[in-house]
Design brief:
The protein is built from five helices and 33 strands. By secondary structure, the protein is mainly β.
């Protein structure tokens, strides 16, 4: 059914721009005459929608666990890794090969495990025919190793990325950030997870080892021959992948699992629920453990956001299957994300303690700044405060050590979100409503739905200063210019 622009705005207004209604609108779609141009970027000239490959049969493929990257060498202070950027052909749909871009030949990239305060050095050779820039999303890192949009690794070149990891335990991820092509590069496979642990987390009785599972969820579109279809449209990406496989199954024991869930999509929001309607326990958000666990039936994540949850499968008899669903799209082929099959019993000494971490005390802000996000109807260009990205322009200058309130307003009737490099922040409120406990911890990316204004408080007291960036992490929008420069200065 086609929707008029007036209907879209009326629905958004009635729902206060809620994630659920936005998902419903995406699922319904807008006809070609009514599709808002500011929701899209100009489509690549080489791609024309004809017919996409049929959706793979759900739950026909086992979910793989991305390999853990092993150090090539270690010292008393440092772990050294080699992680080239290479093209690869992989099987996504059964019997068909898909050309992708990878870190280390793995789709998605291998998981890097780091420890707080211990140095990680990643040696990277670019074996693609285009420049790249690897950004460690959520990292406390100096500007030279942040992987900025113009800090490129040229074809055939090698460079080292050095991460000192001066931060608490957290689920991070790395991905390409070369400006104007980051959306396509990430879409074609250039991402992987980076897990930091610390003494506090290691001492907690949370599920560990094989029961601590990374889950990267994303969407793609495939041509009938198995090749990737890429444009900047939302509705040409109907296939859901989990760790690189379409709507897989995962065999579990009847015990507790820690699931590190990442929304690795370019545009698609998710609201994760179990098909049984049962509660699970959220224990962490983007930048670390929550202060205390949060029992919930829902985990909403926009692109780039992470949430660690503990699911207790011991409440289900062996032989039970439970589906992880996206409740935003109840009538859509993308509703069912993956299936957990309880296949055995297991001894379980893990638990979720009542206290998880001590979060920094809030500081008094001295400055309030306002940011408006929109996309140009005529050109598809993304704007922050009316400007598209310019590498030479200083958009926001902050003083090191200051605490500020940032008000972020979405002027569009499509979703956006907001990611700041280097720092974490705390959400104060959305349209005046305080965050739920699962979003009240340390964040680096926050949803800003249509008609919403989100207020965050951020303190610029991390070890580094210099040039960083903030942008919409619906990464197609970033590629279209919805990004700006942040200069942190001392003195």
């Amino acid at each position: 059914m086609a929707s008029t622009r007036r209907e879209v705005l009326a629905l958004m207004a009635a729902a206060g721009g809620s994630l659920a209604v936005t998902g419903a609108l995406y699922a319904r779609g807008l006809d070609a005459g009514e599709r808002p141009a500011r929701a899209l970027a100009p489509e690549p000239a080489a791609e024309t929608v004809t017919q996409l490959a049929p959706i793979a049969q759900a739950f026909a493929t086992a979910m793989p666990i991305p390999p853990v990257l092993r150090p090539t060498s270690t010292t008393s202070t440092t772990d050294y890794y080699t992680l080239p950027v290479v093209p690869k052909s992989v099987e996504i749909l059964p019997g068909l090969l898909t050309d992708v871009l990878t870190y280390g030949g793995s789709f998605p990239g291998p998981t890097i495990k780091a420890r707080s305060g211990r140095r990680t050095v990643v040696k990277q050779t670019n074996r693609l025919d285009a420049s790249t820039s690897m950004h460690l999303h959520g990292a406390v890192v100096d500007p030279a190793n942040d992987g900025g949009p113009m800090d490129l690794v040229l074809t055939g070149a090698t460079r080292n990325y050095t991460y000192l990891n001066p931060q608490v335990a957290s689920t991070l991820w790395y991905h390409d950030h070369a400006h104007h092509v980051e959306a396509e590069n990430v879409y074609r496979g250039m991402s992987g997870m980076y897990l930091i642990t610390d003494d506090n987390e290691a001492a907690l009785p949370l599920p560990k080892g094989q029961y601590d599972v990374p889950i990267m969820v994303r969407d793609i579109g495939l041509n009938p021959d198995g090749s990737l279809f890429f444009d900047h449209q939302f509705d040409t990406r109907p296939q859901i992948l989990v760790n690189g496989k379409p709507q897989p199954y995962f065999q579990v024991a009847a015990r507790k699992y820690r699931l590190r869930v990442l929304n690795g999509s370019n545009l698609r929001p998710f609201e994760f629920r179990l098909s049984t309607g049962d509660e699970f326990t959220q224990i962490a958000s983007d930048r670390g453990l929550l202060a205390e666990p949060y029992a919930t039936t829902s985990l909403p994540l926009s692109p780039g956001e992470r949430g660690d949850i503990v699911v207790d499968f011991s409440r289900y008899p062996v032989g039970t299957s439970v589906v992880l669903q996206n409740s935003l799209f109840p009538q859509d082929s993308t509703k069912e994300i993956m299936r957990f099959d309880v296949v055995r019993t297991a001894y379980d000494t893990s638990s979720v303690p009542a206290r998880l971490a001590t979060l920094p005390a809030p500081l008094t802000p001295t400055v309030t700044r306002r940011f408006e996000l929109d996309m140009d109807e005529a050109t598809g260009a993304g704007h922050i405060n009316g400007k598209s990205y310019d590498e030479k322009r200083a958009d926001t200058t902050v003083r090191w050590g200051d605490t500020e309130v940032w008000e972020i307003k979405n002027l569009d009737f499509i979703p956006h979100n907001f990611h700041i490099h280097l720092v974490d922040f705390r959400v104060l409120d959305t349209n005046g409503v305080p965050p739920k406990p699962g979003e009240a911890g340390l964040k680096d990316t926050v949803r800003v739905m249509p008609n919403e204004t989100v207020r965050i408080t951020v303190t610029f007291n991390f070890p580094y200063s210099g040039r960083y960036f903030y942008h919409c992490h619906l990464i197609d929008h970033s590629s279209m210019g919805m990004m700006a420069n942040l200069d942190i200065v001392r003195g």
